[in-house]
Structure formats: C-alpha cells, structure tokens
Amino acid sequence: xxxxxxxxxxVKQLHPYTPGKPVEELERELGISNAIKLASNENPLGCSxxxxxxxxxxxxxxxxxxxxxxxxxxxxxAERLAVDAGxxxxxNGSNDVLDLLARTFLDSSAEAIYSEHAFLVYALVVQACGxxxxxxxxxxxxxxxxxxxDLSAMLALISENTRVIFIAxxxxxxxxxxxxxxxxxxxxxxxxHIAVIVDEAxxxxxxxxxxPDALQWLGEFPNLIVTRTFSKIYGLAGLRVGxxxxxxxxNDLLNRLRQPFNANTLALAAAIASLADQEFVKASLGNNxxxxxxxxxxxxxxxxxxxxxxxxxLSVKFGRQSEDIYANLLQQGIIVRPLGNYNLPEYLRITIxxxxxxxxxxxxxxxxx
Length: 369
Ligand SMILES: *Cc1c(COP(=O)(O)O)cnc(C)c1O
Description:
Blueprint: H1 9-12, H2 23-30, E1 36-37, H3 49-58, H4 71-81, E2 88-91, H5 94-105, E3 111-115, H6 120-128, E4 132-136, H7 151-156, E5 162-168, H8 180-189, E6 195-199, E7 224-229, E8 242-245, H9 248-257, H10 265-275, H11 278-301, E9 306-307, E10 313-317, H12 322-331, E11 334-335, E12 337-338, E13 347-351, H13 355-368
Parallel strand pairs: 1-11, 3-4, 3-5, 5-6, 6-7
Antiparallel strand pairs: 2-8, 7-8, 9-10, 10-13, 12-13
C-alpha cells in the first residue's frame, strides 16, 4: 500500500484541465519574443489604465490580508447589477465559484447535468465531488446553434438524484447562445430543488436583442445562480476574480465553504477599478465585433466553415487538417486552441485578437490553406 492508494478514486480519475499554451513557453521554445496568443479568450486590448493605477496603489499594503468580505467590490457590483451585496459571492476566478457550487450541492449520491461540448470545468468539478455526470447530447451541426445546448435533451436527463444543472450562455468553445424565452421556459420547467447555474462569462460581449440577462430572474427562481467574471472583457484573467449572484441563502452557503481570502488585495482593487471604466469595455466590445466580422469574412472567402459565435472567439472547422494547422501556426509563433478534448477534433478555437494580430494570423493561414 502506498499513500496514492489512499487517494480518492474520483480524484485519481480526473483528467487535469489543459490550458492554452502560455506565450512565454512558446517564446522560450522558439527563441522568439513576439508570439501571439489567441488561445484563451483573453482581452487583446489588455485592461483599463485605471486598473494599472489601482494595482500600484494597492501594492503598498500587501503585508495585510485582503478584505475577506470584499466589501467595496461587492458594493460596486451590487450598484452596477442592481442586486444586494448579500447576493454576491466573490471567487478566485469564476472557476473557483463553480467549484464552490459543486461542493455545496454534490456528493457521490448526486447527479449533475451539462451539455456535450460545454465548458470543461463543469466536468472537472462534478467529478471531483464524486458525483455522476449526465451529459446531454448537443444540438446537431446543422442546427441554427450548431453544437449548442439542447435544452430539451437536458431536461430529459433530470432524475430524482439531479442536484445541479450547468448552462453556459454563451457557451465556450462553441460561442452558441440561448434566447430569453427558451432559457426562461427551461428554468421554469426545472424542479425548484435543483440548482440551475447559468455561466455568463462572456455576458458583456453579447450584442443580441434576444440575449437574456439571467439576473432579472433571480427573484422568481431561488434555485438560479448566475456566474460572471473579470477574466474576459475586463481583461483581468491573470488576477483571478469572478463571482456568483444568487439568493442571499445560497450566498450564505457558498460563503461557509469559501476560503476566507480567496480573492487577493491586488485582484480586488483591480476589479473595482475596472468597473469604473466602461469606456474600456465599450472599446473592447467594438474591437471584438470588428474582429469577429473580419475572421468570419476571411473563412467565408476560403469556404471554411465555423460555428457562428456571439462571444470573443470563433471555432473553425479545419477538418482533418486541424492538427497540422495548429502545429504550423505554433511554429510561426501563433497559439490557437485545439478542441480535441471538447470532442470537436476537427475544430480550432481562435480568440478574437487585435486587428493586427488577426491580420498576422490570416497571412499565416494563407500560406497553410
Ligand atoms: C473563461 C470562462 C470562465 C471564466 O473563468 P475564470 O475562472 O473566471 O477565469 C468561466 N466560464 C466559461 C464558460 C469560460 O469560458
């Protein structure tokens, strides 16, 4: 017997999350200094200038523990989102919040439902709790929302053991989204004792009339939990701040489990400052819309299909060439994301970069296609 034999089976069976290749790693390997990372849906414009200043100011007191209650961040968020501060749970990224939610509701007797091709973290946190994952088949490739969530298929998987349902709106890596009525009807149909987690990591990027703000339904559905993040449009992925908005009762449970100092001093200061710069958010949105169009036009002109996306990335069908294209782009200093572990091996996910980064990508693709 070794100590490894004592480890939990559910932990030994985990397949660790594969992140996008870090820019420094590729630069080290190739001996270059100008690699372009379009692999993790980060903001190509960086973050607000206000953030840089706030971090500098906050860094003079890092000998003190952070505010475990995140008072000022919650107050700023509460004001912006028109909810009570007591409904907000701050996480070390929204991944942390997803993990807290899983641990709050799931054990080995429970089931969780999510969609095929959904964000991989759902599978990880469910398995870490030893719970059973029920994976709903996604919509077909020729659906309007190709490979998107099939809400009827998800409903059909509800059993007496279901405790949690994960929905990403929009979903990563498909970029597909759910409309207001269909999502609300779905939540309405789910029994009230099941936690419905709506992951809105890309909320600020979506510009569709029918796209819902799930926060509006919190009063009506006490089992609804919405998660958002500062990692995407606010450009703070490296600092790790995300949050859940829920009923005050669920918030209270999450906070019993939450590590008291899970969001650090610099991250809290940065998040507060970033909320104050909505001009930066607007500029990021503008860059994204232009970039999405630029890329879509490019692949249209090459007769290469992609999954229409409302987020800050595009998953493109390179077919059997996809592995080669990934490797060739890497050799030329551009990192995109292979989707084999999302069961979409013919696709590569490309984050919307700056106009210049995308021009460089297209130039390299011209040589490969
Ligand atoms: C990027 C992403 C997140 C955010 O993760 P953080 O931990 O907040 O950086 C959450 N959900 C989805 C679907 C994502 O793609």
